[in-house]
Design a protein that fits this description.
Blueprint: H1 48-71, H2 75-96, H3 102-127, H4 131-153, H5 160-184, H6 198-228, H7 235-260
Keywords: Membrane, Transmembrane, Transmembrane helix
InterPro entries: BaxI_1-like (IPR010539)
Transmembrane segments: 51-71, 77-96, 103-126, 132-153, 165-186, 198-222, 234-251
Amino acid sequence: MRTTSNPAFRNLPTTGGYANFNYGQGQPASPYGEAPAAPPQTSRPMTIDDVVTKTAITLGLAVITGTLTYLVGPTAVALALPAAIIGLVLSLVIIFKKKVSPGLVIAYSAVEGVFLGGISYVFAMWVGNPGIVMQAIAGTIGVFAAMLVVYKTGAIRVTPKLTKWIIGAAAGAAVLMLVNLIAGFFTSGGLGLRDGSALAIGFSLLCIGIAAFSFLLDFDAADQAIKSGVDAKFSWYIAFGLMTTLVWLYLEILRLLSYFQRD
């Protein structure tokens, strides 16, 4: 399986073991000349339906908690930061924990929805246009659907070279965002990557592009996992990974739209 820019996929196994094409080879036969019976299966290989179902559950829960948070009004602002911190902690636990934990993924989705609802309310009030939220959601769905079509049609093939470029670009963008944040503590506007200037607009467009191409790696990782016959429980990792990319894309689109809609 190829590597991906999404750390959520680091725990996906590279092989499955459900096909059992080689089972019985190199093993002693029974006294009657028959191959030994295959061991009982306690689980099953992952399918595309598993991925779609788990992704729908995580995104649906995030939409519900996000909507409820947004509707509480000004209180949503106070909920955004705690939810962001809790979501970060949960994501790190999910990424570095060796065992699949659907409960943690569901909890992360709920908390991330609260964060998105709160930050969406902040942006809506900042620009004085609540419609910016629906515009960002529509843009996110549009980019996701477009990249899915691109992947399925093979218009852009996921190659090792493309994978390296996307991972490098994502890492570079992350470093720039961190440096800009640190610089913001010492100078007004930091490096100017988030102040609404032409440079900030260009940086947001770059991040949107990187997030969009990251979907290709996510889709490919999921496709390879399905073909390898990994355990169905790992579909929770894929759902979590897709959601992290969607969250990043949504935030970047929301920020970009805010640059053009300030009062």
